[in-house]
Amino acid sequence: MGKWRYGVVLDAGSSGTRVHIYRWLNSHKAKEKASDAQLHSLPVIETDKKWTKKIHPGISTFGEHPHDVGPEHLDKLLGHALQKIPSKDVPNTPLFLLATAGMRILPELQRQSVLKEVCDFARSTTQFQLPDCDLHVQVIPGETEGLYGWIAANYLLGGFDRPKDHNHGKGHSTYGFLDMGGASAQIAFAPNATEADKHANDLTLLRLRAIDGTSLEYKVFVTTWLGFGVNQARQRYVKALLDSSTSKELPDPCLPAGLKIEVTNEGTLLETGSDDEPKPKGAAHLLGTGKFPECLHQTYPLLEKEKKCADTPCLINGQHVPAIDFDVNHFVGVSEYWHTTHEIFEKGHKDKAYDFKTYQERVNEFCSQKWKHIEKGIAKEKWGGKVDEEKARDVCFKASWIINMLHDGIGVPRVGIEPLPDSKNTTKAVHDKAKEKGFLDPFQAVNKINDVEVSWTLGKMVLYASSEVSMPSEDALAVGFGSNEPGIPKDFQYPGGTFHLYESASNWHRLFIEHPQKIPAFFLVFFIFCFIIGLIIGKERRARVWKFVMKPFTRPIGKDPLHRRRGRSLPIAKLFGLGGNQSYERVDLENPDAANDFELEQTYLHSSDDELSDGSNGHTSGWATPQINKDAPGYFGGGDVLSQGAGLGLGLSPARAFDRGGLMSRTDSRERIRSRASSPKRRGKKVADEL
Question: Where are the membrane-spanning stretches (predicted)?
Answer without folding.
Answer: 519-538
